[in-house]
Amino acid sequence: MIELTINGTRHRIDGDPAEPLLYVLRDDLGLYAAKFGCGLGQCGSCTVLVDGKPAQSCITPIAALEDRVVMTIEGLGSARTPGPVQQAFIDEQAAQCGYCIPGMIARAEALLRADPRPSEAAMRDAMRPSLCRCGTHMRILRAVRRAAVAMGGGIVDPAEPVS
Amino acid sequence: MSGVARRDLLRGGGLVVLFALAGTGVGQEGGTSGGGEGTGAPPEVAPELPGSLAEFPHLDAWIRIAPDGAATVFTGKAELGQGIGMALLQIAADELDLPLERVSLVTADTARTPDEGITSGSQSLQNSGTAIANAAANVRYLLAERAAQLFRVAAQTLTTTNGIVRARDGRQASYGELAASLSLHVEARPDVRRKRVDARDHIGRDRPRRDIPPKLTGAAAYVQDMRMPGMLHARVIRGPAEGTRLTAPDFDAIARLPGIAQVVRVGDFAAMLGPREWPLVQAMLAVGRVPWARDDTPLPQGDLREAIRNLPTEPEVILARDAVTLPAVRRITARYDRPYLMHGAIGPSCAVALWKDGAMTVWTHSQGVYPLRSALAELLDLPLERIRCIHREGAGCYGHNGADDVAADAALAARAVPGRPVKLTWTREQEHGWEPLGPAMVTELSAALDANGHIAEWTHAVWSNTHSTRPSQAGDLLAGLEVGRGFAPSPPRAIPQPNGGGDRNAIPLYTLPRATITNMFVPQMPVRVSALRGLGAHMNVFAIESMIDELAMAAGGDPVAFRLRHLSDPRAIAVIRTLADRFGWARQKSERWRGQGFAFARYKNSGAYCAVAIDLRVEPETGKTTVLRADAAVDAGETVSPDGLRNQIEGGIVQSISWTAHEEVRFDTARRTAFDWSSYPILRFDAAPQRMAVHVIDRPGQPFLGAGEASQGPAAAAFANALARATRQRLRSMPLNAERIRIALDGFGTR
Ligand code: FES
Ligand code: FES
């Protein structure tokens, strides 16, 4: 029996402690934002926040998450009341297929919590573990810049003007 | 026109106009052959009607009006992340004169929507958008005509606004009321005019996509997110890569693994099922240890591009011009090529299937639900009516990836467990290992200048396998080859011009009085290949636009001016001028290790016009490139959604830089050796351009021109041209990656 705190709710999981969080989220808890992309820690589509830091849920066993605070992007807002990072992605229409975007949002959230005023290079570096096949990169970066401003910070040296 | 009508027009309400003898609405080429990737839609039955109305002329195939006046629009095309859903809604809302929120959309579903073949070739707006626009205009006209009968006035005196038909005397009727006594099962008339351009509310304006907020907040948006009562998860068991098979799998041992409910076997096809996913993931590790073999002849050693170049061909001259020109004074001959590329969807292929009461339902991210249904019918030995394929979104796939194969896998697995839905997901390694690849290609060009610096001669030959093995029969599916019923793949075929496959965009838009262009179709396929976004356009435009720059340099002129000198199409000229102006082309100065490149093409010579300019810097010690800026100009005819169009062009540029500068599928003699993102790296954020701008040239009232695949070719060539200016070395063999750049620079002693 493992106790997990996810988006502020405690869950008791009666399963294999080695099971990665991703499958628990999707199979048991009906939380679909984190996506399966590779299961290998290479693509970032399963990214969630653990104690505010980005974590690839496909390779994070639930046993490692007791006493940790797990946040998925369901915890950041809803379609009706999106969180600031989600709102910035909506404002920039930063999605094509959108499959990678929940992971991107989680990563951006973690970045801006840790550093509300990152440099352009630090922003790109923070987003680097997440892959996007649709080439939505420019819009994703615009959304992160916009979110940084909306959250009271900003990008120190933005490569493009921020809306 | 009365004052009332004029005011309504200004508000966006439309006067109902019928031109009995005037031309059609917006004419478009008919035919929905899926971008020429074969296995297209049914034949035209009403060729006088535009877009896919030619195949499905009845209005109720496209639009239905509910009693409350809300409209449902049906398209045979699929939302692939290209934003087609919102664009079609904008078109329908405008032409119907309904508020956007009262229009909803049903996409590709064999039980509900018209058979529009495959969603490919940047044809969704051209075919489906045109059909829906004209169907909606017809429906609005019929509603008004019905009101005219009721009011005993002439239809031409009525106006429509927000779902209400109004007479001049103030009488009005809602669409819902009118539709109740109206059959829409009538053929569209070609003489119903679409709304005037200045009366449109949505076309040409940015409307936020409806699918984005749910996708960003965790709604079940993809086939991968589907969950149904009693659903089982499944994994398919096969060798590590295309061309291989497991030699002696112990299925009984696999079935005994914890969490495995059942192993389904049909011939050599095998899948394992279980209630939860994690035990299946672990069981796949055991499957990964099973010995495997390659039965086919070994793959040729070394670069497979050479193998393709040397295989037997079925040459076809697709352009031969031999006007008399001034004598050639300077000739350049060059070979340009590209390796095999992967679609590499971020989410592996997945499908849900349900076998119930003797009928199979499959939820799939296939780009062609109708041809898939045909293939499944043969595989499952069922009549077509007993199979329903419903499109659900997957991760962006950009061509024929594992979507159809996994649908067959899921259907076979589901057949063993009647009444229980089965969700079968490929592993990342299976996706990389089994998806049909984008074909490797070789082009050989030779061009000559006359004494005036004009192109006097041009030859282009392109070697390539087919660019579509999209399934239409059981043997086109991986599972079809495993079930042991003697199914064989359809014979490979070239996709004829004007769309072209390997030779797509091999014919330049430039003025070439003497030219020979040959499609060297290579039927024999060393590895499994199929459609990848843009088909041959990526390679051919790369080659043509690189050669144009080489010629411009030889002629001692500016490459943009050189292009303009060889063009007569005013829209091509406008796109190039716009970009040159906005990019500040004339002001750019190449410094050492920094250069700018320009390229242009009109996709398929019938789609959108697109020019791309790139400014990049090279680090000579490492060969690493940084794209400082990538800009584009695009003319996609009438623009439905400017932001949606920019999204497509931006994405195409970034994706193309990834293909062109970063990607290559490698092989040993038994199989491909790209299994995951470490053995097949793609562009990450550090390599994305520093900044990008897309300039849209809108052409209101003109036909829609497909744009989803317009920027890949120009972006590839603009990158190569910028690199050539930055390094003074011309690289002609993709990928133009750091390693190759460093070798090229080393070779010339520039360090
Ligand atoms: S799915 Fe977790 S990193 Fe790819
Ligand atoms: S938007 Fe499709 S993978 Fe990123």
Q: Can you offer a commentary on this structure?
A:
The complex is a heterodimer of chains A (163) and B (751). With 163 residues, chain A is of the alpha+beta class. Chain A contains 5 helices and 5 strands. A 5-stranded mixed β-sheet of chain A has the order 2-1-5-3-4, with helices on one face. In chain A, α2 crosses α5 (137-150). Chain A starts with a strand and ends in a 13-residue tail after the last helix. Chain B contains 18 helices and 25 strands. The longest helix of chain B has 28 residues, at 124-151. Residues 1-13 and 18-35 of chain B have low confidence and may be disordered. In chain B, β22 (594-602) and β23 (609-619) form a beta hairpin. Chain B has 3 domains: 3-203, 2-Layer Sandwich (Aldehyde Oxidoreductase, domain 4); 232-295 and 349-425, 2-Layer Sandwich (Aldehyde Oxidoreductase, domain 4); 441-467 and 502-747, Aldehyde oxidase/xanthine dehydrogenase, molybdopterin binding domain (Aldehyde Oxidoreductase, domain 4, 2-Layer Sandwich). Chain B has a 7-stranded mixed β-sheet with strand order 10-11-8-18-15-16-17, with helices on both faces. Chains A and B meet through α1, α2, α3, α4 and α5 of A and α5, α7 and α16 of B. The site of one FE2/S2 (inorganic) cluster (FES) has 12 residues of chain A, from loops.
